[in-house]
What we know:
It is a single chain. The protein is mainly β. The chain has one domain. The protein is globular, with a radius of gyration of 13 Å. 8% of the residues are buried.
Amino acid sequence: MKVSYDPKTDSLTVILREDISVAESDEDKPGVILDYDSEGNLLSLEILDASKRVTEARKIEFQMTE
């Protein structure tokens, strides 16, 4: 999984799978784009205007729970 924030476009991207081609993209809600493979599995999501939608878009915290 890869998470990136682009301050130039103010977009936050979460990539779940990079090894599969995107077959379909859907703007689920305004400013939230979901990418799917040919079987309907979620590959990535992009949040536009991230600084307005996400707390501290430039800071990423990773946490594992047991």
